Amino acid sequence: MSLSPWVIFFASIFTNNMILANFLGMCSFIAISSQIRTAFNLGQAVTFVLAITTAANWLIYHLILVPAGLEVYRFIVFIIVIASIVQLSEMVIERYLETLYYALGIFLPLITVNCAILGVALFMVIREYSFIQSVAFGVGSGLGWMLAIVMLAGIRVRIEKAPIPEGLKGAGITIIATGLMALAFIGFSGIVNIQ
Fold first, then answer.
1. I want to staple 13 with a disulfide (CB 3.0 to 4.6 A). Which of 61, 102, 144, 190 is the partner?
2. C-beta of residue 28 within 8 angstroms of C-beta of residue 107
3. Which pLDDT tens digit goes with each residue over 56-114?
């Protein structure tokens, strides 16, 4: 039985969240989550890149690599497609959203090596998704990633002035908050699993 694209879409946001279930894309997740606005903007950029790269990678994989018997090169091809889309996105953001470009800093080009982006491309191949399922998975994974980073940014803003022990300030409390968020999302795991 084939899963509906809607099931895959919602599952990739909640039950199979790239950050909270698979722990992919943690470096920029932790580094950029100190301000809600910046986290939201990075989440939008990641969602956009995931939507475009998932569709492009599916087409290239199924229309070029598989017929030519070159599936072994999927890692290299996926990374090249991701790097190209991120570079184009970076140029557009720098041109039209200069404030956002400087707020995201080094983490915008680092979307290229965000393991969540490559993970989505590889999961779509491993799980043998159709084109529509792959796009739903890519967009849902991006929205799930954005949801998680905005939630963490909201938590970090709220606890900024809280009386936290000195040893836990910064990365320590951020990792604890991420772990607690992941535990909360485990409650959704009984609804549907797309693995």
1. 144
2. yes
3. 999 999 999 999 999 999 999 999 999 998 888 888 888 888 887 787 777 777 777 77
Helix axes 36-60, 131-159, angle to 10 degrees: 160
CA distances from residue 189 to 84, 126, 156, 177 in whole angstroms, order as listed: 34, 20, 25, 19
What lies within 8 Å, CB to CB, of 149 at 6+ separation is: 19, 29, 32, 33, 39, 40, 42, 43
User: For residue 35, what is the DSSP state?
Assistant: S
Quick one: tokens of 140?
């849902």
Structure tokens at 65: 């690599």
Residue 176 token pair: 């604890």
Helices (H) and strands (E) counted in the chain, each on its own, are 9, 0
Going by C-alpha positions, the residue among 101, 96, 93 that lies closest to residue 38 is 101
Mean pLDDT calculated for residue range 4-18 = 89
Beta strands (DSSP E) in 26-150 are none
In three-state secondary structure terms, 161 is coil
Distance between alpha carbon 98 and the CA centroid of its chain, in Å?
23
